[in-house]
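[agent] plan:
  1. take the single chain provided in the ticket
  2. run structure prediction with default settings
  3. attach structure tokens to the ticket
  4. add a short note for the reviewer (M.T.)
[agent] executing step 1
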Amino acid sequence: MRRVQMSTDELFVIVEGRDHDVPFYEGIIESMGEPKRGFQIWLREQIALPNSQAGGKPAAIELFRLLKQQGRLKVTGSGNIKSIIFMLDDDGDFVANKRLRSPHVIYTCHADVESELFGHGNIAEAVRIACSLSKAEAAALPRDVTDALNSLSARWEEWIKISQSSHLLGIRTGFKPSDPSPINGDKYGQLDPNASRAAEQLLRSKCQTGEELKLKRMEARINNLSSRGELGRLVKGKLVSGFLLYELKMRFANDPISTKSVKSGLSAILLTTLDFSADWAGYYRDQIRLVVAT
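[agent] step 2 finished; step 3 output follows
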């Protein structure tokens, strides 16, 4: 924390992920044109604490709680007040009411930063670059590709309900929201009704006494998201990449294209297509300004 006190910067952002978090949040803060005295973004793993986890979301939460307990989320030094903010992946926490309640903790609107890229980036342009398509080919891409996040969430609606309910309520089914759907054909294809029924039955059979009501409430929250067209907020970004790869191979089955970069580099390309001055980024800007101003 001595580095914070000695710095003339006034905003210090701690992120959990290594892949895209730093340039994503850097773009958001730079779009604000403030704070005037500058900012720094640190990976949680760069901050050493005795007997502490190295990085990731649990380690970031651990550090937040420590600084909050010590009253050091706001620090004075070098003639100004410094604010410390933690940027965390939501991972469905908003549905389960598990978000930490502090202005110093800001969660992604979607499941994680990579999912934000698919929610707000230009997928058609990113696919055109990654697959070396012509502009005409990119313009002809179907909605399942150009709006992949929402297309996948619609196709996986049953899997999202089952896996998220299982995960967020701690029901031991083995179903994980971070895994591709085992109840859809080829994982990303159409729903298999028999597999869906079997998964649903397993989920309910694993409920302990008193969990049935919690499960019904969780399912109602997820259904509400679906009715508002926001089910994509529960889908992790890496799964959207897999879905895009599946759809592109189907789309160009008779005219194979290079899809190598879709899995390895599409998210990085998407990052370059983001418009950080757009309204979607206001979700973050408003919360950051609130912390800096108080």
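[agent] step 4 note for reviewer: Residues 2-113+276-293 form a domain with the Rossmann fold fold (CATH 3.40.50).
[agent] ticket updated
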